[in-house]
Specification:
three-stranded antiparallel sheet, single chain, 14% strand
Length: 155
Amino acid sequence: MVKEQKLEDMLRAVSLRVTRPRVAVLDAVIAEPHADADTIIGTVRAELGSVSKQAVYDVLAALVEAGLVRRIEPSGSPARFETRVGDNHHHVVCRSCGDIADVDCALGEAPCLHASNSHGFSIDEAEVIYWGTCPNCAAKRLLTEQDSTITRSDK
């Protein structure tokens, strides 16, 4: 009950009406950072039973607009959602499995806001996405390469 009260207080703090779908969606995003909408829909349906995709999309949009949730869109991936907002952090994405992790700015207070050329824009946020291979996929690739080497040497 304490967790639900905290979620309700978060919604009220940004002047959003408290509804079961809003509480369930916010809870799902907190529980599964960087989840896509389909994952969130599955989690919400497990919690509430019947809820439409459109209702979840509408709640996500409201939460993003209110500043409780951040939407990120890595290239080639569906939109992902997280509750870590307001700190201008970045992300690293695995090219193999799509896993995403947060990356803090390396040089203190939002150094990425100082573009080499702002082209006259008043910059208030920067989004950097690092791409690579996560430790699990790297280990799988190494095992596959080792198996391939052993198989070739057996011939």
